[in-house]
């Protein structure tokens, strides 16, 4: 809100033309008013015609502040002195006063001493204090209108801040140099949040200082304890101050109201706040104000406003200004702390809902990005995931729950957990989406989400994809060609009663699959299909930069994709998952079927020895034969169908044994009299990693060994 002045001063005949405000008229006048008297400024009225001579008129060269022809005590004397709020009368008849231009929403700047806002006499002495003002020094605010405009602009500046640092900086920048020459802001450490009751002692920490950056601060002014930086005052005394119960500082803070530091209570509190020697730092008389900062529940800090000795002291009305500044700042700090706590909770919630790190499955490299919808909407329903599966496969998942609220994030977390559980059962992609749809219906009737679930097999170089109303993925081939995969769209999760269809596609080595949410391709400025086409073109253009034989790096590719977002394209949060298919060459895979008979373990040892000899890994033969024999023995003991044995040579040597028994083996400590139960103990001691995964047709027990 912009405030307009209610009175305007115009240059009059006989005024000093060098005075930019228009000098007060100087003429003979009755004796000055007694001490303590004040004169109200004359308010000009629209359309008012000045009186003429002979009828109670005022001739040019005289002034009538009250505008009624009387001879008030506040008239300007012949020496140029007079009440500071007196206004010159209008010398022209029927002259229209133009409407003033509204002022910008900024802190009113005080005039310099040569502009004489307080009616400095010709001798250069200020009337009230009798002190001369050096040229260029800001003069104090004397009018109530000045104070109101300052408080309005300062509180608007403080209210713009959304976090703690912005609010404290707004307070400092608003008060220096208009209201004070320096300011020190102390805040409670730690700051209480909301209705929390502090448990420890009251400790104040110097949060920020600010001052007028001038060369000569000690030349006739107050002496800082250390040399200040160009824009900030270094710490005066100790940075931390513990407020002892019953101390002078505690009493001042309990009083809530700002006080001058020349009062006994405040003077006794300064050494506790600033440290010993503060009497040499803070100017004498009413040139410092100590204002407690009280939030909604309790005092959360204090602000110290300082003026140099050459500047006119604070007045009683300045305590009201300091109280307004302290109140608005304290309430803003309270809200900023609450907002910071909510933002922290939102960030932690979103972080825990998304994968902390991506796995490193064999034959595929992964990269991801997540961007919230806006700074004020840090949580949303978008998620991505990569889940290792048996047989060196990996499940790639990306989904989007409607909305960007805590509820959306909670629903997303439940659906993501459900998807991980279903993936562990090694269900086909269409079955995973079917069970997710049932889960969404159990969570509520309006729980809608889209999801895309894909399973990549690095051995067969194939990928199986099922879609539930999600934007289709984009495949970037090694040569630089980008295509949008034709995947049945399906219905969103939560609709119910809909069958999902899966398609199996080639996933050539060197290709990159990009899964994303609609926030990347859809906004108010473009529809989803236009965005998908722009994404495809962006991927193709990025691939051209690295040449046809070298795919672009995954991390750089994700950054390039996000660069396609322009100003106004961020209407929704974005989840992005990129997968680079390296695959496993057929020459690095050995696969056999073993009949469930007593001779199967011996045959498995011979087959493993031959494969290792072919790969040049003879040094691993003893360990591999021992572990393969133990795992195959456990499998054929309970299996009714052929047992599978597969060796994979990648950066490690991986062995997988599958059977049709769903029960998973458990590691246990065998007793001395037990004949069995030591096979998994040997696997656990010799293998780099091992595990067991339940399949829809049984289970797979696997282990890995370092290649040396």
UniProtKB/TrEMBL annotation:
What is this enzyme's class at the first EC digit? Answer: hydrolase
The record's keywords, sorted A to Z, are:
ATP-binding, Hydrolase, Kinase, Magnesium, Manganese, Metal-binding, Nucleotide-binding, Phosphoprotein, Protein phosphatase, Transferase
Q: Which GO terms describe its molecular function?
A: ATP binding; kinase activity; metal ion binding; protein serine/threonine phosphatase activity
Task: Please give the catalytic activity noted in the UniProt record.
Answer: O-phospho-L-seryl-[protein] + H2O = L-seryl-[protein] + phosphate
Q: What does this protein do?
A: Primarily acts as an independent SigF regulator that is sensitive to the osmosensory signal, mediating the cross talk of PknD with the SigF regulon. Possesses both phosphatase and kinase activities. The kinase domain functions as a classic anti-sigma factor-like kinase to phosphorylate the anti-anti-sigma factor domain at the canonical regulatory site, and the phosphatase domain antagonizes this activity.
Biased composition annotated in UniProt, kind: Low complexity? 49-67
Every PPM-type phosphatase domain range: 364-581
**Source organism (scientific name):** Streptomyces luteolifulvus
Source domain of life is Bacteria
Q: What is this protein called?
A: protein-serine/threonine phosphatase
E.C. numbers: 3.1.3.16
One of this protein's Pfam families, by short name?
A: HATPase_c_2
| Annotated stretches, region: Disordered | 1-147
């Amino acid at each position: 809100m912009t405030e307009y002045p209610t009175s305007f001063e115009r240059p009059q005949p006989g005024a000093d033309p060098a005075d930019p405000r228009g000098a007060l008229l100087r003429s003979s006048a009755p004796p000055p008013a007694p001490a303590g008297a004040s004169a109200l400024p004359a308010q000009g009225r629209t359309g008012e015609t000045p009186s003429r001579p002979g009828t109670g008129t005022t001739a040019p060269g005289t002034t009538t502040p009250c505008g009624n022809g009387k001879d008030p005590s506040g008239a300007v004397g012949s020496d140029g002195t007079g009440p500071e709020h007196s206004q010159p009368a209008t010398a022209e008849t029927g002259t229209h006063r133009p409407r003033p231009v509204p002022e910008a929403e900024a802190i009113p700047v005080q005039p310099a001493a040569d502009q004489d806002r307080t009616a400095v006499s010709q001798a250069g002495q200020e009337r009230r204090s009798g002190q001369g003002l050096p040229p260029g020094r800001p003069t104090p605010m004397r009018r109530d209108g000045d104070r109101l405009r300052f408080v309005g602009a300062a509180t608007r500046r403080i209210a713009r801040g959304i976090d703690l640092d912005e609010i404290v900086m707004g307070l400092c920048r608003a008060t220096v140099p208009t209201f004070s020459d320096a300011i020190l802001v102390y805040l409670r450490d730690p700051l209480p949040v909301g209705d929390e009751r502090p448990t420890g002692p009251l400790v104040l920490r110097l949060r920020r200082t600010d001052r007028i950056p001038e060369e000569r601060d000690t030349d006739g002014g107050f002496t800082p304890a250390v040399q200040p930086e160009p824009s900030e005052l270094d710490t005066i005394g100790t940075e931390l101050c513990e407020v002892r119960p019953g101390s002078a500082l505690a009493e001042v803070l309990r009083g809530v109201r700002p006080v001058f530091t020349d009062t006994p209570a405040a003077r006794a509190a300064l050494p506790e706040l600033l440290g010993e020697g503060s009497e040499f730092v803070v100017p004498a008389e009413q040139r410092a104000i100590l204002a407690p900062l009280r939030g909604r529940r309790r005092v959360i800090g204090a602000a110290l406003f300082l003026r140099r000795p050459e500047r006119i002291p604070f007045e009683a009305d300045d305590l009201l200004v300091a109280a307004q500044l302290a109140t608005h700042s304290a309430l803003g700090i309270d809200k900023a702390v609450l907002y910071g706590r909510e933002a922290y909770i939102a960030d932690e919630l979103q972080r825990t809902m998304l994968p902390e790190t991506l796995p490193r499955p064999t034959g595929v490299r992964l990269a991801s990005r997540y961007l919230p919808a806006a700074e004020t909407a840090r949580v949303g329903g978008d998620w991505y995931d990569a889940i290792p599966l048996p047989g060196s496969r990996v499940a790639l998942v990306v989904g989007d729950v409607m909305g960007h609220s805590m509820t959306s994030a909670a629903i997303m977390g439940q659906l993501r957990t459900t998807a991980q559980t279903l993936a562990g059962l090694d269900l086909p992609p269409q079955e995973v989406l079917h069970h997710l749809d049932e889960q969404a219906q159990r969570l509520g009737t309006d729980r809608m989400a889209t999801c895309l679930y894909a399973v990549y097999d690095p051995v067969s170089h194939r990928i199986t994809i099922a879609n539930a109303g999600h934007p289709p993925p984009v495949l970037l081939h090694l040569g630089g060609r980008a295509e949008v995969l034709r995947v049945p769209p399906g219905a969103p999760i939560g609709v119910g009663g809909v069958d999902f269809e899966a398609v199996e596609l080639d996933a050539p080595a060197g290709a990159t699959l990009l899964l994303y949410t609609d926030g990347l391709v859809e906004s108010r400025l473009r529809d989803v299909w236009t965005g998908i086409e722009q994404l495809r073109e962006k991927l193709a253009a990025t691939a051209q930069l690295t040449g046809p034989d070298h795919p672009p790096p995954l991390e750089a590719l994700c950054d390039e994709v996000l660069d396609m977002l322009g100003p106004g394209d961020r209407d929704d949060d974005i989840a992005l998952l990129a997968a680079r298919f390296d695959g496993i060459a057929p020459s690095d895979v050995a696969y056999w079927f073993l009949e469930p008979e007593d001779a199967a373990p011996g045959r498995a040892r011979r087959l493993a020895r031959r494969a290792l000899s072919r790969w040049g890994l003879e040094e691993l033969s003893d360990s591999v034969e021992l572990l393969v024999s133990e795992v195959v023995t456990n499998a054929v003991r309970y299996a009714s169908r052929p047992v599978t044995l597969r060796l994979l040579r990648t950066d490690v040597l991986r062995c997988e044994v599958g059977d049709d028994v769903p029960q998973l083996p458990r590691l246990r400590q065998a007793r001395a009299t037990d004949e069995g139960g030591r096979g998994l103990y040997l696997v656990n001691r010799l293998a780099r990693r091992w595990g067991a995964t339940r399949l829809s047709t049984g289970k797979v027990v696997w282990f890995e060994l370092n290649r040396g």
